[in-house]
Amino acid sequence: MLACHVGILTNEADEALEQALASLASQLLAQVGIVEITIIPSRPLPPDVTARLQALDPRIRLLLPAPGGDRTASINAFLRIMRAEIGVLVAEQIIPERDAVEKLVRILADPEIGMVGAHRVAADTPAHIAAYLTHLRLRLAHTLSLEIPRLRDMIAFRRCFDSLPPSASIAEGLIEAIVLHAGLRLQYAPDALAYSPVPRSLGDFLAERRSLYVEHLALRRQAGHQVASLSGRTALRLAFGELWEAWRLLFTLTSLALLETVSRLLGAYDYYVHGRTHAVWDIAWTTKRVVHSERKSNQERR
Fold this sequence. Notes:
The structure is a single chain. By secondary structure, this protein is an alpha/beta fold. It has 2 domains: 2-199, Spore Coat Polysaccharide Biosynthesis Protein SpsA, Chain A; 240-301, no CATH class. The protein is built from 9 helices and 8 strands. Strands 3-2-1-4-7-6-8-5 form an 8-stranded mixed beta sheet.
């Protein structure tokens, strides 16, 4: 059994925090055990809210906020009280799937792996342009992470360090650098889902991406570590891949519309010119062969 200590960062006691805690308290676990779930707030939470959150599960504890709400100082406070050799950090507003902890932590059974990251999925449907851009960005991040692990928002890590530097800009990126420096590998867990919020406006989308890019640049200067998404060449290659898929979809839809139009014209010709009603349908023999082949294949598998 792999024991882990979960820390969940939060800016406020909102619905997302309650949903995340409820998911963590009811994780489906087989090879992994959660010894404690620690709330890491950036500011003090009201006592009645704290009591309600802790009532969700006896493993839930509250960490006192760091002075000034410093995120790195809060994570360092969590590292000092960690009760297991494996830590799991869940970022603000992230809601893990009910089996996410199991699918993350069990990968660390391999002693050569030092850090694992979850597959971030947009929590909302793409109903507006900012949400659509977020869906597209997360899909690109997933494709990139399958090649070069890009670990953010929900991570599991081996305890190979005691603290982060006080000036750390982006904690997950710095932990990546520390893990690699220790000679351990990074791993992406595409089946460990973590639901991420979606910006509601282009302004919010731009502000989020701008802030993150500043943190990535600071990380590169402070630790000499470049996160996978910072490579413009890689981003362009993945973007062209998305454009090719979009072109294939457009070609398929155009072909479908053309074939449907031709079918209707031929049907109108049959009905109005020849008076045919197709009361007895012609058999599409290729579909018969496909169905027969599939049934035979399924029977053989049984």
